[in-house]
Amino acid sequence: MKNIASSFTLPNGSILKNRIAKSAMSENFGTRHHAPSKGLINAYRVWVKGNPGLLITGNVMVDSLALGEARNVVVEDYKDFELLKEWAKSTEGTGVHLWPQINHPGRQAFAAINKKIVGPSAIPLKMGSASKMFKVPIALKEEEIWNIIKRFGNTARILKEAGFTGCQIHGAHGYLVSQFLSPNSNIRTDQWGGSLSNRARFVLEIYREIRHQVGADYPIGIKINSADFQRGGFTEEASMEVIRLLGNEGIDLIEISGGTYEKPAMIQGDRKKSTLAREAYFLDYIEKARKLIKTPLLLTGGFRSVSAMENALEDGHLDVIGLARPFCLYPNLPNQIFDGSVKRFETPIPVIGIKFLDKLGGVELPWYELQIQRIGKGKSPKTNLPGILAFWFSLKSLFFKSFWKNK
Fold first, then answer.
1. Residues 177-193: tens digit of each pLDDT
2. In a domain? residue 3
3. Is residue 2 included in any domain, yes or no?
4. Within a domain: residue 244?
5. How many domains does the chain have?
6. How far apart are CA 202 and CA 145, in angstroms?
């Protein structure tokens, strides 16, 4: 474990104490008014005791009128600043980095909890019967695009002031940044659409705005798709070019993932046989990316054994190992890896037998959200938690948010 336990210095000089990162997950654990809940803050106090190098939070939205989930944390002003400071202090004195993942859902926003849904273009999600849960988005106007860019920077600055040690742009999984990058969801004919350089303008301007507001010494990362895995969508070749552009801008850490709600590879994995043998979902991609850029690379998805993690670092194709769902069931996982008490960690895939919900992650995602809530409430994870409870939790959160939205 010499590689996993070793420190790593980011381009801006910030040091990760080891190579294990808790990658962002859907948390849905804010308050009804979108502040960080006491339970959410406590979950991070538990995770930091596990001694990872980096903790990346779940979605922190830049606009209270654009929610991915009913209980998303939103940071658009200072009204919850004291709670944000309390959240940031969860890692104080530990040497563990805590980065919020900053996001806007775009068209990937449930109609039940959002009055107005926007996107690069008026292109609806194509998800079969599940499409009824989403509206056709309204194409963003030029001034609205710039407003969202400013919001990303504003959110990052407030979080820095609260004490978070870096931030990550969510540019993957079909949310707004990802939508601008994909020709399937972006058919604009102005400076924000058409060529790849135009489609990449949105994410580059977001990075520049955040950098302008937080300064040169503050780490900024991004999670980006290796591909959308859809015909006519964001391809591997296009992704390689975008990470090259981001690397040239000076971004500090690039996390590789893949998929969207329409093709959720981030849930199911989209793996070649050669990659299956090595566990990680997107390892083939990251090996190519390493030859293209010098920017540090974080790979999340599929790692379930210490040996595979160590081998991936030894090969030099990546710099940081991302683990997400294992942290829901093994809150002390890094320490267990370092002391040798855990060599392999399994994560179940709960289902209820409704095909489109199981495929979308409508049971799987809230099942892991409930595990996070158990951790935040001081309880142990429960691997035999029935999938139907997770489905009910998901429905309940949508129903109550819809009720309060229409009050």
1. 999 999 999 999 999 99
2. no
3. no
4. yes
5. 1
6. 8
Residue 203 near residue 181 (C-beta atoms within 8 A): yes
For residues 206 and 259, is the Cβ–Cβ distance under 8 A?
A: no
Which string of DSSP letters, residue by residue, matches 18-59? SSEEE-------B-TTSSBPHHHHHHHHHHHHT--SEEEEEE
Bridge partners of 171? 224
Tallying the residues shown for the chain, one arrives at 407
> Contact 99/59 with Cβ under 8 angstroms?
no
Report the run of H or E that residue 399 belongs to, with start and end.
helix 387-405
DSSP letter at 90? Answer: G
pTM for the full model? 0.92
Place of tokens 């060529």: 195
CA distance 200 to 180: 7
Domain encompassing residue 276: 8-405
Query: Residue 182: left (phi > 0), alpha (psi -120 to 50), or beta?
Result: beta
- Tell me the C-alpha distance between 52 and 95, whole Å: 9
Q: What is the pLDDT of residues 290-317, one digit of tens each?
A: 999 999 999 998 899 999 999 999 999 9
